[in-house]
Amino acid sequence: MNLPLLLRSIVGKPTCIRHRAARLLASARVVNMGGASDLIRLGAHTVIRGELLVFPHGGEITIGDWGYVGEGTRIWSAARISVGNRVLVSHNVTILDSLTHPLDAGERHRQVRAILTEGHPRDVDLGARAVWIGDDAWIGAGAIVLRGVRIGRGAIVGAGSVVTRDVPDWTLVAGNPARAIRTLSEPKTEEGDR
To answer: pTM for the whole thing?
Structure first.
C-alpha cells in the first residue's frame, strides 16, 4: 500500500509526510517551522541522513522516490524546493531557495534579533525563488545550489560547485560559479527500470 505515514516530533506535532518505505536515519533532522505536515514530503524508498528545514513564513520540500540526502546536507526552503525521483544529493550539500537573511544591514539586524529573542519571524521577505532538481540528477559532495535554479534531468553537479544558474538536462557542471563541462549521454533503460 502506498499510504503516507505521518511522522511526529517529540512534542507530537507532525513534521512531514513520508511514504512508508522512506527512511530517516539517525543523523537526519526534519525541522518544520511552518507547522503543516504536508510542507515536507518524502517519496518511496528515499533515505534522509541530512537536514530538511521549512521556514515559518513559507516553504515546501518535496523529494521523489528512491532519493538520497547525505549526512551534513542542508535543504532549507522559504518558497519551494522540488527534488525528482532517483536523485542523489551527496554529503555536505547546501540547497537554498532564499537569501536566508535580508540584504539591508538594518533589516538583517532586526531579523537576527527577532530570531534570537522570539524565534523566526513569519513576515520577512528573503527574496525566495523556487529550486527544481530533475529526475536522475546527482549533486556532488559539498556543492551549493542557490535560489531560483533549475537542475535538469540527469544533470551532475561536481563536488564543491556553486550553482547560480540553470543546468540543462544531461549536463555535467563544475566550478564556482558552476559552468558546463560536457554533455552526458542519456542512458537507454528498460521500461521496468523507471
So the answer is: 0.88
